[in-house]
Amino acid sequence: MEPLTMNLAIVSSGGITGRGILLDYASWAETNSVQLDPLASTSIPLAHLQQVIASYNITFSPCGGDILFIRSGLTAAFDKLDDSSQHMLSERPTADFAGVEATPEVLKWLWDSNFAAVAGDMPAFERSPPGGGKSDAYPAEEVGLEGVSCLHEVLLGGWGCPIGEMFDLEALAEMCKKEARWSFFVSSVPLKVCSYFTWLFERNRHPFADIRIGAGWRCESSECNCNILMRYRARASNEGLGEGGNGERNEQDSD
Fold this sequence. Notes:
By secondary structure, this protein is an alpha/beta fold. The chain has helices at residues 25-31, 46-55, 74-79, 83-89, 104-113, 151-159, 170-179, 195-202; strands spanning 8-10, 16-23, 43-44, 67-70, 99-100, 117-120, 163-164, 183-188. The protein is 26% helix and 12% strand. Strands 1, 2, 4, 6, 7 and 8 form a 6-stranded mixed sheet that branches. The protein has a two-stranded parallel sheet with strand order 3-5.
């Protein structure tokens, strides 16, 4: 038996290119009057995803290697909130967001579909927190792996399958709908950023943390791409970095 030719390339710089497939679950749910709150701990059932595939006449590559994208509508829901409501999300006791249900059936479907990677606009791809805050998302013995409680453990630890999170899929969904085509070329290449830029984000660990970078800060490394990101502005400033800063930590940030 000849090996399958995978529809995927991992480039030397660490990026991924391949054929993407979008399942616009948010639009399907709206059309079919299916209740969906992307900002609540809600499961996206496999049965619904299969109905999306059938409704939009989506086919996967017989050779495998497709990159799966699922749109829950989180980006659109977040953008509709006012500043106060957006800030309140970061103060919730648990990170409640919609995502794919964590079941053996979902794992079997992902495996049989031979996806090269999975991604979505959700913070965790799967329902967050796993199991709706419970430790028994599904029995470990059912999937043959001891101690498994979420999709991440199988996808990442078991299969080495990359998971993409917090993707803005709004413009892509509109284009796919306009063209009536749900497959597209994907090119994902990570930026090379220096350790200082990484430090900025590590000290603001929450996904909705606020960061402002001084407009005058520049990295001297010729191999670093962090200057591409210097125009990034968040809704509130990080007190240690003023406009026109030189990229050095202030004394109050020395911890």
